[in-house]
Recover the amino acids of this structure.
């Protein structure tokens, strides 16, 4: 039996091989015949599904995200019809599942209500200094801490004053000879009067005929002590401030208004405000003052309202939230978009604009400058009236952009720039060239040439008009020019090389933004970084050469830094 099985083994192996070959062939024939039908049945369905919050997830079928559990959405398809390489298509299925909604941006009147924040402050006009009227040493204090209530006529301190003792002796001597020397007598009385002794006090010195060693200093104004400047044993000169007091019956409501919203604020506008930690109906006030000066750091101005402090329930430094209604019906036109349309990543704000000439839904990312306006954002630059943007499902669109390797909220692919005209990019190239002159002056520690280069930059910006630009390009350039001018003007007025370098960092940030987002007509531009600049805070700058020449240190540490990124010509 064993011999028979051994003899037939080669035949069995051969039969098995033939069977496998035939089976494979039959399967291939079946697959070829059924594939078209399967394709037809599933035609139009996406082949890849992704998560709007985790675009790295790529699955062959619909389902839940394995990370967050959200429903997967169809991945977008790249647009072949758009001239913009950063535009991409979304299928109808993807649009429906992501619930994408769009809105045509139009000019409209700004809302007449602003939401503002601020705090309560003491009325500066109610502040008063309680001073020493004559020199001496403090023997006793009757007011010992800040926050204490002081009333007019109240004793503040007792002072031992040798100078005042001598003045009393002079008065008594002059009083005995006043018939003979009336002028001397009058002069001694005036000396005491200058030290704020009353006529009754001077008469009492004459009547008693005794020199008083210690005198009380009295408060000449009521209020709450907000600053205590003295202690027992201190020696005071005439006019020394013992205490600073203020009247808290009247307070100021101070609110910050961004420069973009100042045009919507007028004197007399009604304010409704609530105080943190205090329940109840909103309180009301009216704008009584608008600060003519703008804070250069916050880009906001302060507006003020005068408020009564009934029952002293309000305290200085309390935080408030307020709504301001503009009584002026002629508010300027503004370009407004819903808050849901704007995505934020650090300092960048982006929207997704629908490509108008695409046969299917196609979107491209657009960076914009915005400012809060009630429940919406006011567009400062980056969008034009009539453009269509996504207002719902924006996160899903951004995820699709990331998946397709396009510009997105989180990243801008290396070597890609926003499509701009030659005129726009020529303007940017001229600015960068002038920036390099300024940088090189700082590298050489040259204050005067650096300020001259900053002045030349201001003049250059005046020549680079945006009249030859249109739509979003014009808005984008005007926004950039404004920031360039602000930084260059500060550089022009800088007092020394240290201040020049401080403002140069601000200019560098804006020039880097220009270069990264729009590109310039220069073969290579290098982004350098020095970790030791500004007390180890670190700072970036751009250079036209690969060699490190540090504008923040100059000759003291010329080679400090490294190249972090290289930009090539568009």
């Amino acid at each position: 039996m064993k011999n028979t099985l051994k003899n037939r083994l080669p035949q069995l192996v051969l039969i098995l091989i033939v069977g496998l070959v035939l089976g494979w062939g039959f399967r291939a024939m079946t697959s070829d015949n059924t594939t078209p039908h399967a394709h037809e049945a599933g035609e139009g369905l996406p082949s890849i599904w992704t998560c709007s919050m985790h675009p790295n997830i790529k699955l062959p079928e619909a389902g839940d995200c394995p990370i967050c559990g959200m429903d997967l959405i169809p991945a977008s398809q790249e647009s072949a019809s758009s001239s913009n390489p950063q535009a991409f298509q979304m299928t109808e299925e993807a649009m429906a599942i992501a619930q994408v909604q769009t809105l045509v941006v139009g000019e409209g009147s700004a809302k007449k209500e602003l939401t503002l924040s601020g705090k309560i402050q003491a009325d500066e006009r109610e502040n008063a200094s309680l001073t020493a009227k004559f020199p001496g040493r403090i023997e006793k204090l009757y007011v010992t801490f800040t926050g204490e209530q002081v009333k007019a006529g109240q004793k503040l301190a007792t002072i031992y004053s040798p100078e005042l003792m001598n003045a009393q002796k002079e008065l008594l001597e002059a009083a005995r000879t006043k018939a003979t020397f009336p002028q001397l007598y009058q002069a001694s009385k005036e000396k005491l009067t200058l030290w704020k002794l009353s006529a009754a006090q001077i008469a009492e010195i004459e009547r008693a005929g005794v020199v008083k060693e210690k005198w009380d200093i009295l408060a000449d104004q009521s209020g709450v002590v907000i600053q205590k400047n003295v202690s027992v044993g201190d020696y005071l000169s005439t006019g020394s401030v013992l205490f600073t007091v203020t009247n808290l019956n009247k307070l100021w409501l101070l609110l910050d208004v961004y420069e973009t919203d100042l045009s919507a604020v007028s004197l007399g506008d009604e304010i409704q405000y609530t105080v943190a930690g205090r329940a109840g109906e909103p309180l009301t006030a009216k704008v009584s003052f608008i600060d003519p000066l703008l804070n250069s750091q916050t880009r906001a101005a302060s507006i003020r309202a005068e408020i009564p402090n009934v029952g002293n329930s309000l305290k200085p430094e309390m935080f408030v939230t307020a709504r301001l209604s503009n009584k002026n019906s002629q508010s300027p036109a503004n370009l407004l978009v819903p808050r849901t349309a704007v995505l934020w990543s650090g300092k960048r704000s982006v929207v997704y604009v629908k490509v108008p000439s695409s046969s299917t839904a196609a979107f491209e990312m657009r960076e914009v400058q915005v400012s809060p306006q009630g429940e919406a954002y006011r567009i400062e630059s980056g969008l034009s009236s009539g453009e269509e943007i996504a207002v719902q499902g924006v996160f899903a669109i951004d995820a699709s952009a990331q998946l397709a390797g396009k510009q997105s909220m989180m990243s801008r692919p290396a070597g890609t720039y926003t499509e701009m005209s030659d005129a726009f990019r020529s303007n940017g190239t001229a600015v960068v060239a002038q920036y390099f002159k300024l940088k090189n002056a700082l590298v050489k520690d040259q204050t005067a040439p650096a300020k001259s280069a900053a002045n030349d930059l201001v003049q250059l910006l005046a020549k680079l008009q945006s009249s030859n630009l249109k739509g979003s390009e014009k808005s984008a350039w005007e926004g950039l020019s404004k920031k360039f001018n602000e930084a260059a003007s500060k550089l022009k007025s800088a007092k020394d090389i240290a201040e020049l370098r401080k403002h140069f960092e601000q200019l560098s940030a804006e020039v880097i933004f220009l270069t990264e987002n729009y590109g310039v007509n220069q073969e290579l531009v290098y982004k350098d970084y020095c970790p030791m600049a500004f007390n180890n805070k670190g700072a970036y700058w751009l250079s036209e050469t690969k060699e490190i020449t540090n504008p923040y240190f100059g000759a003291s540490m010329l080679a400090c830094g490294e190249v972090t990124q290289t930009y090539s010509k568009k």
